[in-house]
Amino acid sequence: MNPLLLPYIFNILVLIPVGLTTLLGGAAGGRRVFQDKFPESAGIRTILGSLWTAILIGSVIGLFHPVSMSSLLLIQVIYKSIWLVVLVVPLLVRGQANARPLGHRRDVPVHRASAH
User: Fold this and answer.
1) Which of 8, 37, 58, 102 could make a disulfide contact with 72, Cβ separation 3.0–4.6 Å?
2) Separation of alpha carbons 55 and 49, rounded Å
3) Closest among 61, 56, 27 to 41, alpha carbons compared
4) Where are the domains of the chain?
């Protein structure tokens, strides 16, 4: 198997549930994906769901045209590196890693924000 196919396969496995839940799951899908750590925003949920679904579609195309779609992988490396530097590292330095969802983990229960 061509090793360049592995990132596309990983994208597909992750983005089918995450991208589609964010895009099509409504407010409940947003709460699940963002672990109730952000206020509900249809606009943010829709733009992120659209981005992740576009990456999903590009990854499916990448299975058949891995070299020509490799710029998609570069975009992911760039945007995730920016996310790490701007959000994750400062949270870790301040000891606030639990303040924002750093990634979906199925082994950690999702705590619902209490409605007051």
Assistant:
1) 58
2) 10
3) 27
4) 5-99
